[in-house]
Design brief:
Helices cover 10% and strands 36% of the residues. The protein is mostly beta strands and 190 residues long.
Length: 190
Amino acid sequence: MNNYLRTAAVIAAFALPASASAQEVTLYSGKNFKGHSVTLHKDAGNFERLGFNDQVSSLRVRHGKWELCTDRDFGGRCRVFEPGDYSALGGENNAFSSARPVHAKGGGRHPRIVLFERGNHSGRSVELDAKVDNLERVGFNDRVESIDVERGNWRLCSDSNGRGECREFGPGRHHLPPGLRSKVSSAYPR
């Protein structure tokens, strides 16, 4: 019996760290964490199978980072959510159809940012998934007023080649501060 208890204690000691690092997100059909909910611990490529397609209005990321996408099988527009509570999703309310944990090494997808010509995330736009030393090459120099960082962190600078006033932005939708508004000339994933 004594050896049995020691073995059980050793197994429990190894089991705790594994469960503590598990990925977890809870999705809610209503704002402010109300309505029906579903908790995910692994990839969910199609919310329709869960009876939850296009119903996410708020979410809680308990462990890890999660990428939610507007189309099934992680297609369409995607956004990464860090650990925390998101009581409302604004323009992304009832838009998500798939989700998966973002793994620190080798997981997730390439960084991506959408640059918008207007301050309300509208007008002409350009998507980037790699560094651009001079936005003049893509016809977007000194035009950016708002951005949507879909994956990764991005550093935007007022001059080409990463010079001038620079600022880093994480996942989410952002309005540029006055020092960068209509002045961005280079962009770098971090």
